[in-house]
Amino acid sequence: MHSQHRILPYRWKGRGLRLLFSLGAVLLAAGGCRTFSGLPWGRGPDDMDGIVALYPLVDPRTPSTGRLFRSVPDEHGGTVRVRAFPIIWSASFYTAQAVEQNGERRLDAFLDPHGRMLWQQARTGRPVERVAVVVDGVFRFFLRLTPGETRWDRVSIPGPWRAEELRRIARRATENYRAINRKGGYRSAFLE
Length: 192
Known about the structure:
Layout (H helix, E strand, L loop, with lengths): L14 H22 L15 E5 L12 E5 L5 E5 L4 E2 L3 E9 L2 E8 L1 H11 L6 E6 L2 E7 L9 E6 L3 H18 L5 H5 L2
Antiparallel strand pairs: 1-4, 1-7, 2-3, 5-6, 6-9, 7-8
């Protein structure tokens, strides 16, 4: 005796699995996009402060469509237009040091292996020459990167830092690094 029971109509035969995979891919893509939408400030405890990011600037003639660019507020109520993702940020600074010499202040941020790779990529080939320095989501100043960078283990960020701000960032660097990279993987193992 031949069974006439079918779960799906004939035209759906074989398409159910494709539909399921397609739906899963859409959900995965939507979840992945949401994960990156808040970088870098959407990823840590609320009490995190001293997060530093270097953003490449956007040519003013570039249309402001899509999610490739963002406006970062400055201290005076204006905005600076930068690319959506930083070249490098506190997720790669396993420690930092506040340096004050000859009346000038700079932050020396020491990089983990992943940060070294990112910094080398940003500085070789077609290197970025000018970046916006953003601290805790607020634009602080522009930085001109000198050509021929030879130190890949650190990023030196000279600028018009406030002494207290610079010390706070250096003091919180390791703690922020651990909080941002707390989920495991080779970055969290780097500090152990």
